[in-house]
Amino acid sequence: MFLEFRLTSRKKKDILRVNICTKEGNSMKCPYCSSENTRVIDSRPADDNSSIRRRRLCDDCGKRFTTYERVETIPLIVIKKDDNREQYDRSKLQGGILRACHKRPVSVARIDQLVDEVEAEIFNKEEREIVSSKIGEIVMNRLQELDPVAYVRFASVYREFKDVNTFMDELKKMLEP
């Protein structure tokens, strides 16, 4: 059984799904023995404070395991250049930024922070659909501040530079005071 609560804030609208354990057996199953006879022994916020980490104990086999409870957001649909629509995927955004920052002096922590910032900006728009070009522009603006070489790498793929002159025009824009 799931209850659905709508949380509304100025920044973001989320749907929180809460699993209600009932006597019919909707409790958490042990990953070791599949028993439904488990209980929570410790509960605390996870690292990012957007989820709750729960330590559980199986009363049948005695093993411990960890579960995470987090807010389930309303799915965001990305409208691609060819007008296809697909669900937003954080790993695609992260992968593009990682490729742009390859062999650059940018830490993984800073890349994760950049992805979080871009996501926050996207979700704060409170729209259910967003054009991929808008996401690309947000990423490029943030990469330009972070690392100029990573910016040019990302822009060359994102803007589909056709020749060296287009590439040089972008470099000249960056070098102008």
Topology:
Blueprint: E1 2-8, E2 13-19, E3 38-45, E4 51-58, E5 64-70, E6 72-73, E7 77-79, E8 85-87, H1 90-100, H2 108-124, E9 129-131, H3 132-146, H4 148-158, H5 164-175
Parallel strand pairs: 7-9
Antiparallel strand pairs: 1-2, 2-6, 3-4, 4-5, 7-8
Helix pairs in contact: 1-2, 1-4, 2-3, 3-4, 4-5
Number of strands: 9
- Along the chain, the helix and strand elements come as EEEEEEEEHHEHHH
* SS content category: alpha+beta
Question: For the largest beta sheet, what order do the strands appear in spatially?
Answer: 1-2-6
What is the makeup of the main sheet?
3 strands, antiparallel
Total count of helical runs of at least 4 residues: 5
Rounded radius of gyration (Å): 22 Å
- Binned strand content: 25-35%
